[in-house]
Design goal:
Elements: H1 3-17, H2 21-33, H3 39-44, H4 57-61, H5 67-80, H6 96-102, H7 111-119, H8 125-140, H9 150-153, E1 159-164, E2 170-178, E3 191-193, E4 222-225, E5 235-238, H10 239-258, H11 271-274, H12 278-286, H13 293-304, H14 317-321, H15 332-353
Length: 374
Amino acid sequence: MQIDFHYYATYCAAIIAGYEHEEALDIAYSAQLVDLCSKTFLNRIKAPHIAATTQLQLEMMDARTDILGLQEITRIWASFHFLPRDLYVQKPHRTKRYMHKYRLICGPNGDLVVKTVELAKNKPLQSVGIAMHVLADTWAHMNFAGTPSLVINNTTNEFTEIYTSDDGTECERSIKFRHSATAPDDLEKGLFTNSLFQGNEHSIMNLGHGRAGHLPDYSYMKYRYVPAWNDYKDIVKDNPSDYMMAFAQMVQAMKYLRGEIEVFEKDTYAFDDISQFKDQIDSILRKKQPDASDDWKAFGESLSGKEIPAFDSDKYIEEFNNSNRRNRSRTFLAKFIMGAISHKGMVTNEIFKSGNILTGFTKEIRIPKKEETA
């Protein structure tokens, strides 16, 4: 997913869930910050690298791919962008090494997404935003794993877009890929950028959905493709339907986090709460465009009657850098950092407890409740 969903759509979901405008902005900002809090960003504010929630392309180019390097990569990507669905899933006649990777395949409605939402309960709004980013990505990034692996994340080149023609007929056309990182995707021609095939099992090119390019990030896209982990049998990914489920589940999760409902359970959605907006949301999701930010922004402002400012990654840096040791923990970025470290520790240790060594292990920390950081 991109800024359109993580920032603007998350704001919309927070408003529908009952949060006030300023609270919704904090949640949405934190959700988007997950895609920007790299080591490079943390260096700017002299914060610990353990709080990294993403890796920039230049950082990835220098990343080690020995066991320790792979563990660091996997801790970040499996925790924040490709949350595993089932750490104990079985697949016959596979080696233990293969199963460690197979069990990291991302998907919605796993035990870890429940733990993710529960971890954010009674915590600062930054932790709510982190949880919403992770939850949303389980829908967008399903079927890929947050670890470099050819045997899991590779695909064939046979991608097919499924679309509805002007007369209502469902049609298909072949998708073509190129490997230019600077060339924008051409949605009308069906020409997209993906990662270059690398036969090395642990190549960074084989991390996450690189082989599918940005197809999982476009809400309008419905496509058929052939993943390696599925024994090269094709599957259909229906982004408009999946993104609608993600939105409804975010509203449900945030109602739980606000205390409106007592339990957050798998496969539960706030469909009643979004029913009056469903056609409008569906229209945004199905509109063929690379970035739906303007449409989500307009929808969010119609919900709250307030202006949604553009996302500014530098917004809270001065507050953090100018704070002293006594009050730093109360700054926006400090609360985000603590939430990120806590979430990463939870996911890492859940993976480790399952017998999977691909993330190593780490010390889990307690983050103060929101009233303690007010």
